[in-house]
Specification:
There is one protein chain. It contains 1 helix and 7 strands; from the N terminus they run ββββββαβ. By secondary structure, it is mainly beta. It has a single domain, classed as Beta Barrel (Thrombin, subunit H), CATH 2.40.10. A 6-stranded antiparallel β-barrel has the order 1-2-4-7-6-5. The longest helix has 4 residues.
């Protein structure tokens, strides 16, 4: 089911979920296979007080060229995490930039608002600069 905010979707998550198939690796070891599921999202960069510039900072490691941006928003298609499993990290595409999102824990909102808006998501996205 898609959210009413589907027309505002501006980003995508690529979440790896387990499938019901089993594969063998090159040595013949049996292991469960996984597949990547695309989830459409509506995200915004978090702003500071008095609508100051976006909370974004360069990488702290010397010689590494990336930025960290705090993103908040909703899952819009589907409105729930695949298999109802919230990943700790997933690939993100935000306005054409690809990176990794470190998903932070979220508590359910009161009055079941996620039924109308979709699951809430927020966390630090790391993009190559």
């Amino acid at each position: 089911m898609a959210s009413e905010f589907l027309e505002y979707a501006n980003s995508k998550f690529f979440v790896s979920v387990g499938s019901d198939r089993i594969e063998q690796d090159e040595w013949g070891n049996v292991q469960p296979s996984s597949e990547v599921v695309e989830v459409q999202t509506f995200l915004k960069e978090s702003r500071g007080t008095n609508n100051q510039p976006v909370i974004s900072k360069p990488g702290e490691e010397q010689g590494v060229n990336f930025t960290k941006t705090y993103l908040k928003g909703y899952l819009v298609n589907p409105m729930k995490w695949p298999n109802n499993i919230r990943p700790r990290e997933c690939e993100v595409e935000y306005y054409g930039r690809r990176g990794k999102l470190q998903v932070l824990s979220q508590f359910p909102r009161p009055f079941d608002t996620e039924l109308l808006t979709g699951d809430i998501v927020e966390g630090w996205a790391i993009f190559q600069a």
